[in-house]
Amino acid sequence: MAPRHLRLASRRVPFKVLFILLIFVPICVIGILIHAQHISYLFRPLWDNPPSPFKHVPHYYAENVSMEHLCLLHGWSLRSEPRRVFDAIIFSNELDILEIRWRELHPYITKFVILESNTTFTGIPKPLFFDSNRFRFAFVKEKIVHGVFSGRFATRGTHESPFGLEFEQRRAMNGLLRGSGISNGDLIIMSDADEIPSPHTVKLLQWCEEIPHAIHLELKHYMYSFEFPVDYSSWRATIQIFGPQTGYRHSRQTDLILSDSGWHCSFCFRRLQEFVFKMTAYSHADRVRRKGFLNYSRIQKLICRGDDLFDMLPEEYTFRELIKKMGPIPHSASAVHLPAYLIENADKLRFLLPGGCLRTHE
User: Which of the two residues, 88 and 10, has the higher pLDDT score?
Assistant: First the structure.
């Protein structure tokens, strides 16, 4: 009997193995499901490859230097007259940033082409924010070409990608552009409202001959205000010479990028409700994983710390960059080389400057 007893005992599953199978493994699986996004971003350098690098075009500028000299420094020549420039954006609710953009650029722009929708990219009904605030832009009313895109409202049970609705709006911009009077050879700026080319960048490209047919703009990226500079990773804005095949896009169109060409100020809102609106409205609204993310007091604390609204790790392709950008964005006390209208109206726009992180509720 002794040998048989030993054989039966040896077949029993050890308690440690049972604990691992019944308790530890399910906990690990649940943890992975809850934190899948963090894990994916943490190991992104292992599973994803960066896009091919841009070819940076050196950008020369200093005050009181002639345009002829600046064109020559870039390897171009001076035109006898400037090109017409059309600034084309799809608009959501960034009224303060839009005013800064148009105040900066209006001396160089022929038409401001703006398209807004009655729904968000996520299918939520929204007011026509620009149309109801036209009085703020009376200084360029003769230059405005405004269009309304009739969006599709999300219905319960549907899972339509917000990127599809965003693409439809960008495609609708093509028709609005052609009705704006744009002609072959004119310049067109394709960017979001918060991607602001510097005035001297636009002036350079409208006055110089032999510029590239299309060129991306390297913009200094800020988060929440100009107190939190992130890096120079913003590249989607482009300026190109309009032609028969030109289509409105917000994606890579060339390998060329003009260095240090302006500012990109993400989530640069005056009111906390505007933060909540964008967090639920734009194409990455799936990043709001819990209702608590939309709490006003939470958002306010994160703004003043320069921390991430969505509790996400940086989207980087190397572990070095990922580790370098973990944690809050360092504060900057510099308000140099910013849009002139912002500095001239510092009292009204204090929330966008160093030390102005507190926001209003309404």
Answer: 88
What are 341's two structure tokens? 């209208």
Strands lying side by side in the sheet with 262-266: 195-197, 262-266, 219-223, 229-234
Q: How many CB atoms lie within 10 A of CB 100?
A: 25
Record the tokens describing residue 142, joined without a space.
């003769």
Confidence of residue 6 (pLDDT cuts 50, 70, 90): very low
Distance CA 354, CA 280 (A): 27
Mean pLDDT across the stretch 228-235?
96
Report helix angle 272-281 to 296-305, nearest 10. Answer: 100
Across 202-206, 319-323, 353-357, least confident range:
319-323
- Asked if 228 and 205 touch (Cβ cutoff 8 Å), the reply is no
Q: Is the pLDDT of residue 25 over 80?
A: no
pLDDT, tens only, 192-223: 999 999 999 999 999 999 999 999 999 999 99
Side-chain half-sphere of 116: how many Cα atoms within 13 Å? 22
**CA gap 354, 335 in Å, rounded:** 7
- The residues that bridge with 56 in the sheet, in sequence order, are 257
**pTM, entire model:** 0.88
Supply the Cα-derived Rg of the chain in whole angstroms. 25
> For 237-258, how does the pLDDT look when each residue is reduced to its tens digit (9 = 90+)?
999 999 999 999 999 999 999 9
Alpha-carbon distance of 116 to 192, in angstroms, equals 12
Q: Which of 166, 161, 139, 163 is nearest to 151 (CA)?
A: 166
pLDDT for position 215: 98
